[in-house]
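Progress note, sequence design subtask.
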């Protein structure tokens, strides 16, 4: 498998418009994989309780924060998501000099969810993820298949005031703080000489492997990657194209601008083919802690043929049934050993309807254009309503407990007219 999946973006003032942090990610996964959007409320646990992640069991935290996640339906973790403290995390597959481990451990997607459940700031999420990484390691198949598709992980993490880029190679890692402007990551190491936190043995390990002479300035991307930083910046690379799109909107990056970036097919950001964009997320986080964040998810493939629907953390928020895939419990082929002996139907209700609409858009140009225009109009109206909440706050939280599901129903109403 060649590195060919995912892009994550963040824009902070002054690159974003107004006093907002804008986070965005396309999850690019195998084209037959279902991505669901799920919500889990905060919860307390007893001392000594265990947590079953995708492959391994670890110690449960005393308290977990409420989270909303977009994840491949077969696993425990998530490709991207946010928590009640407005921390957002997305991860990327990265490959480098160190061989990615096929032995089952924590997936990078497990670490995304664990970071969200246990951290109330972006920097704390870096600490949570790296502590778990050093204790339990990362590894195991990253696809619902026994093909042995494995990778290391990088993470882009944001909160109300800053962002962090965290890159890993096995148990070793480096992290860089981003305090303003914009940043994007794809599938190559991107931390160079600005390293604000690191594994204490990371440099010595590289020196021992002969990757670094111990004398020249330490550059994480150059040392740990297959590729030099010059190759990372090569024209035509998705990371470079994504940076150009951010630069084009610099100073005016909004939710709508981020959605446009995620829909861009010429750049390769909106991926098609055997690996395609199976889910997308855009979050708008006000700097003012008195104001709520708004988190938009598609829950369906190809953002060009999807609607971004909002979720806001409020007390008693409803579970997201329309975008939750069927559960197979202990009989799930992922849980049974040997794993991945079959693939059950994991399509959730919204996916089923969207799949039919996508086929119609593809086969009937005029009708497809009409459908797409209706979807965009619905999305535009919703985004405008959310702008009021982002600037004025929430008058009655009870009116928002069903916000995401109501938005799904509005989307389905368009499909049902076809």
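Output:
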């Amino acid at each position: 498998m060649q590195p060919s999946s995912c892009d994550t973006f963040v824009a902070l003032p002054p690159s974003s418009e107004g006093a907002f942090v804008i986070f965005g990610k396309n999850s690019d996964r195998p084209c037959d994989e279902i991505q669901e959007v799920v919500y889990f409320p905060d919860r307390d646990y007893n001392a000594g309780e265990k947590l079953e992640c995708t492959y391994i069991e670890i110690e449960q935290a005393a308290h977990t924060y409420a989270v909303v996640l977009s994840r491949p339906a077969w696993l425990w973790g998530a490709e991207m998501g946010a928590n009640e403290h407005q921390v957002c995390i997305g991860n990327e597959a990265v490959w480098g000099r160190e061989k990615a481990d096929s032995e089952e451990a924590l997936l990078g997607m497990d670490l995304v969810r664990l970071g969200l459940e246990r951290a109330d700031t972006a920097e704390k999420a870096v600490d949570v993820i790296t502590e778990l990484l050093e204790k339990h390691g990362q590894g195991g198949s990253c696809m619902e298949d026994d093909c042995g598709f494995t990778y290391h992980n990088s993470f882009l993490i944001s909160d109300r005031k800053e962002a962090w880029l965290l890159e890993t190679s096995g148990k070793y890692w480096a992290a860089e703080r981003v305090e303003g402007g914009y940043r994007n990551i794809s599938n190559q190491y991107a931390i160079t000489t600005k390293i604000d936190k690191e594994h204490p043995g990371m440099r010595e390990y590289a020196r021992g492997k002969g990757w670094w002479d111990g004398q020249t300035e330490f550059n994480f991307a150059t040392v740990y990657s297959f590729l030099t930083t010059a190759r990372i910046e090569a024209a035509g690379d998705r990371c470079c194209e994504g940076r150009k799109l951010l630069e084009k909107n610099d100073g005016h990056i909004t939710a709508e601008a981020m959605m446009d970036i995620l829909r861009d097919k010429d750049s390769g950001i909106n991926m098609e083919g055997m690996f395609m964009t199976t889910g997308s997320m855009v979050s708008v986080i006000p700097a003012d802690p008195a104001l709520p964040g708004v988190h938009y998810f598609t829950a369906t493939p190809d953002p060009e043929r999807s609607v971004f629907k909002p979720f806001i953390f409020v007390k008693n928020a409803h579970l997201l049934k329309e975008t939750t895939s069927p559960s197979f419990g202990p009989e799930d082929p992922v849980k049974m050993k040997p794993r991945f002996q079959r693939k059950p139907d994991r399509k959730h209700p919204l996916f089923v309807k969207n799949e039919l609409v996508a086929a119609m858009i593809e086969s009937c140009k005029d009708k497809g254009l009409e459908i797409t225009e209706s979807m965009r109009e619905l999305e535009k109206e919703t985004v405008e309503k959310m702008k009021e909440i982002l600037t004025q706050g929430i008058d009655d939280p009870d009116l928002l407990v069903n916000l995401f599901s109501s938005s799904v129903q509005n989307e389905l109403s368009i499909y049902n007219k076809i």
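The CA atoms of residues 56 and 105 lie 6 Å apart. Work on this subtask will continue into the next period as scheduled.
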